[in-house]
Amino acid sequence: xxxxxxxxxxxxxxxxxxxxxxxxxxxxxxxxxxxxxxxxxxxxxxxxxxxxxxxxxxxxxxxxxxxxxxxxxxxxxxxxxxxxxxxxxxxxxxxxxxxxxxxxxxxxxxxxxxxxxxxxxxxxxxxxxxxxxxxxxxxxxx
Length: 142
Prior knowledge:
7 helices, 70% helix, single chain, Serine Threonine Protein Phosphatase 5, Tetratricopeptide repeat, mainly alpha
């Protein structure tokens, strides 16, 4: 298969590059995510992230897809990368907190959710998630 102009060369040897370019992969990945096909979205968005590692929108969409696909360790890594690039990213901290909670790391979850709440106290869902994690930690230590 001849890659589309501007599409990255496939170096994997065992898989073909999807049709189109990064922009197309990103939008198709978002559509798959919206249609609840998180695993397929992860595959496409990971490809886009490989081609455009500095794209925050691609990285965020990938992290969301990983979370929705129950790939919590991968989502933790992706959200952590977003925070490394922008420590003031409240949404990435919220996502990291949720992923850590699902992965069972309630300490990390509480830390990140508390930071997200401090950054955006107007987001009720941030505070709700923090309360739930703190309650789980309390039940676990009792």
